[in-house]
C-alpha cells in the first residue's frame, strides 16, 4: 500500500451517483465544480442530481426494502458489510486524497476521518451480527389470561441520510452503515461542498460489494431542495442528519406530516470549564490545538474557554503561545496541522463573527485575519478573543473556525451558569486537579457529553448525542444501533413457555 506522501496532490473523485445499482450522471448531464480549498482551484466536477433523481432513488430504496429479503437476511448483510470494510481498506489512500482535495483537511490529521470510519464498518458488522433481535419480555396477566410478550427488533425501513461537509467520509459511514446492518435500505445525500466522499462510497459499493441494487443509493446534488425532497418524502421512514440547527429544524418540520423518525446531530457551542486547580500546561495547549486542527470545523469543539479570574492572564498566555506557533498551511504537507476553511463563504462567516466579537467589546489577543504567508487558499489565523461577553453573538453562535472565546469567572457556580447559557447542549469539557470536584461540575453541565481532563467521551462504543437544540437521539453505542430499529412487541398465548 502506498502512502499518501508518495502520491500527494489533488485527486478528483467519481462524478457519478449511485441509483438503483447504476452509477450514473443526471439525465441533463449537468455538473458542478468541486473546489480544492487550499488552492482555490477547481479540482473536478460532480453530477448535479435533481429532485427527479432523488425520487427515483427513494423509489429504488423503497422497493429494495419491501420486495427483497435484505431486511430479513442477517447473514447476507454481514457478508456485504464485511466486503465493504475490505473494499474501503483497499481504497484507503484514494479516499484520503479525495478527502484532502475536497475538504482541505491536513494529511497529518486524517486518521480520524479515514482509518476510524473504516474500522467502524467492521464494528457495526460484528455488533449487528451479535445483536439480540428477539427479547423475551415475560408473561403478563391480562383480562384475557396470561400473555407472553416478545420484543422483535425490526429495521425501520427506508432511511434518508443527509450529511455535512466537515467530516464527510466519517459521517457518511456513521449515518449509513449501522442503518444498513440493521436491515434498512438507504438514500445518502452528501453535502454540496463534499460530493466525492459520497460518490466514491457509491462507486465502491457498486463495484466491490454484493450489496443489491436499491439497497444503498447516493444522490449527489448542488441544490438544497434535493435534500429537502428526501426529508419530506412519504416513502422515507426515517431521516438521520448531521448539520446546522437551522437545517435540522427544517428537516423536522418536513418530516412532521408523515411523523418521520428523525435522528439529528446539530450545532454546538461547547464550554470548557478550567477549574482553578487544573494543570494549565496540560489543559490549555490542548484546548488551543483542538480549536485549530480541522480549522475549528467541528461540532463538538469546546469553543468557549472559561478561565478562573485568579489565573486568567496565565491561561491566556499559554493559549496565545500555542496559537501563534501553530503550523498552518498546505494540507498536503505532513508538518501542518491546520488547513484552510472549506470555502470562501465559510471564511467570510468566521472573519465576520470575529469582528462582531471585537465590536461587542472582546479583546483580540492574537490572530483575527488571514495569515500573511498564505495569500491563496481559504486560511484563517488561529484566533484568541479574551474578555468575551457571554451573551454576545460570538459567545452564542457556532463559529466553525479556529477561534476560541475566553470568558472569566469567579466561582464554580458562575462557571456552570455561563456554560449552560446556550441554546446548544452538545458537549462540554472540565479540567481540574481534584477529579471528584471536576465530576460534580461535569454532572451539572446540560450537555450530552463531557470530557474530563482530556479523557474523551467520544468513541464508537459510547452513545453520543446532544441535548437542547443540539439534537435528538444518539449515534454510537447500543443506543446508536437501536435508533435504526423499531421495538415491536408481540403478545401471544403462553404456550411456548409450558
Ligand atoms: P451548512 O450550512 O454548513 O452547509 P447545513 O446544515 O445547511 O450545513 O447542510 C448540511 C446538509 O444538509 C447538506 O447535505 C445540505 O445539502 C443539506 N440541506 C440543506 N438544506 C436542507 C433542507 N432544507 N432539507 C434537507 N437537507 C438540507
Automatic annotation (TrEMBL):
Q: Does the keyword Isomerase apply?
A: no
Annotated Aldehyde dehydrogenase domain ranges read 28-490
- Single GO term (MF): oxidoreductase activity, acting on the aldehyde or oxo group of donors, NAD or NADP as acceptor
Taxonomically, the superkingdom here is: Bacteria
Key words of the record? Oxidoreductase
**InterPro entries of this UniProt entry?**
Ald_DH/histidinol_DH, Ald_DH_C, Ald_DH_CS_GLU, Ald_DH_N, Aldehyde_DH_dom
Oxidoreductase recorded as keyword: yes
Q: Which residues form the active site?
A: 265
Q: What does the similarity note say?
A: Belongs to the aldehyde dehydrogenase family.
Q: What protein am I looking at?
A: NAD-dependent aldehyde dehydrogenase
